[in-house]
Structures are given as structure tokens and as C-alpha cells.
Amino acid sequence: MSDVGIGTGKVVVNRAMSLDGFIAGPGHAMDWIAEYLTADVFPEVMAATGAMLVGRGTYEVAKGMADQDTTYDGGAQFVLTHRPPDEPDPTVTFLTCGLEEAVATARSAAGGKNLEILGADVGAQCLQRGLVDEILVYVLPVLLGDGVRFSPPTLGRIDLEPFSNTQSGAITMLRFRVRP
């Protein structure tokens, strides 16, 4: 697993999901998440987070939603991409290295806290390569009907062990350990 020799923090795939299994709506829309999930709903998650690693697509969607209250203080932010933007963003570090190196870099920056993995593609790649310790899912009370699924069909089977579920208002947070 990914905790060999690096602090006590875990690598956690963090997702908000509609009840019908979508993490983004049609056209990668994620504005529906902000209707339910704000930084103060589960403050213990942000308190345990030292860094975030996101894919370029998720970064672009979040950047487009910057006028909404969707920013979280999850520590250092890293974006894994093949194409860094022409104009740098001082709030993030763009990484063009391989996935394992990106996870190690972001995990080191987390300072012993958790590294949150956001984004469908980066999350699936981390799961495929055995780099994930836990999955945290916020199930939101909405049916989207279409959009970006929780995992791509190419992911294959990943066995999980449920260890926590918490209700906060309309949101249910589910937590799973990834079985080796």
C-alpha cells in the first residue's frame, strides 16, 4: 500500500456522488455539489487533509466555478497534467511527471496528513496502481441521470472494506478501506 515510509497520512480518493452514481453531471457540471456540500459540513475531513492532487479536467471545472463558495483549505494543491497552462496559477503546483511521482510529491507536501485525490481519471489511475488507502464518498440526495460515472468501466474490480458512515443533514458520508 501507499503508506510505506511516509508519515501517517493516507491517500484518500475523495468524491461527491449523486445517488445514481455520477460525480459530475452532463458536460462535467459540478455546480449541483455546491448546493449540498460546503467546507463546513464535515470539517474533520479538511482538518485531516494536508494536500490535494487533482487532474487537469477537475482543476478546469473548479476554476470555472471560482465565483461559488467551493474552495476548501485542503493544504497544498497539485494538478497532474500533460499540458501545464500558459499562465501559471500561484495557488497550485502543476506536475507533469508520472503518477507515482506525483502522488509521492503531493504526499510529502501533506506533512503527515492525508492526501486527497480528486478527479475521475486521476482517482481511477491511482486505484488501478494500488496507490489508494481509502475511498471517501459523499452521497448527495440528487439523481442526475447522466454525466461522469464514479469509476470508468476500465477500472476493473477493486475490493473495499466499509468502516464508517456518517449522516450530516442531507449528506451521507461513506468511507471504505481499499483491500490489498
From TrEMBL:
Pfam families: RibD_C. Residues 10-150 form the Bacterial bifunctional deaminase-reductase C-terminal domain. InterPro entries: DHFR-like_dom_sf (IPR024072), RibDG_C (IPR002734), Riboflavin_Biosynth_HTPR (IPR050765). PANTHER family: 2,5-DIAMINO-6-RIBOSYLAMINO-4(3H)-PYRIMIDINONE 5'-PHOSPHATE REDUCTASE, DIHYDROFOLATE REDUCTASE FAMILY PROTEIN (AFU_ORTHOLOGUE AFUA_8G06820). This is Dihydrofolate reductase. It comes from Streptomyces avidinii. The lineage of its organism: Bacteria, Bacillati, Actinomycetota, Actinomycetes, Kitasatosporales.
